[in-house]
């Protein structure tokens, strides 16, 4: 095991299975413009879809639907963050899972809580691009 001294003085063990799935280097992903789209119902009061879809990168959260609401929220998704609830739905192959077309890349927002789910999802869905937030980054950003 590789030990990571993470947030709040906890020690987490990264198993060799998980270690083998992690990239050697952090991907260098950059875009000229981005839209970060929440999943609030208040988006339904406007027609922001065309403006959102103009961006190079579009980041969404937790399976917020787009198909029936593209005029309001756009139709494109580059990245979608998944909290524990949605990561476990993907892991369980929930029949109601909203696969994006084209496929979005998934970012696991609670990486240490989801390390087993992440490992299983990576093995089960080889064609799906997945990332994990660094625990140090996630902790710093929510403090």
Automatic annotation (TrEMBL):
GO molecular function: sialyltransferase activity
Key words of the record: Glycoprotein, Glycosyltransferase, Golgi apparatus, Membrane, Signal-anchor, Transferase, Transmembrane, Transmembrane helix
Subcellular location: Golgi apparatus membrane
Keyword Methyltransferase: no
Key word Membrane present: yes
Residue intervals passing through the bilayer: none
Similarity-based family: Belongs to the glycosyltransferase 29 family.
Protein name: Uncharacterized protein
